[in-house]
Specification:
This protein is α+β, with helices and mostly antiparallel strands. It has helices at 25-36, 74-82, 96-105, and strands at 12-21, 40-46, 51-58, 61-68, 85-93, 116-117, 123-127, 137-141.
Amino acid sequence: MSEMSDSPEMLLTEIDHVAIAVNDLEAAIDYYKRAFGATVAHREIVEQDGVEEALLKVAQSYVQLLTPTRPDSPVAKSLEKRGEGLHHIGYRVANCAQALQSMIDAGAKPIDNAPRKGSRGTTVAFVHPKGSFGTLIELVQE
């Protein structure tokens, strides 16, 4: 198979995290500890997004357990609508602005029109599931 000449360069460097929305963060952390021996590598409240996260390190990536800190947060609305489970995929990129523009150029619908501050000192941008084959995507630049 030959590569298409109009394809952009590969911008994804690895999977940063798989985010799982949960109602009870402590219970989810305990489950992952008992089931997999996983421990929390980082924990933070992200006021802007209205969530508390616990990151469980898996190789060079994370399982991100998320719970809402306020009822109007996107995660609270997701839990109300769909229940607990997969919330989004975080893709690690070298340049968040470039990756966001590339996605927009390919037809994605941005949630964030420009990169912004994320947890653990990262720069992030979210892209709506509509236009991304039903998957909420977070671009993460370390």
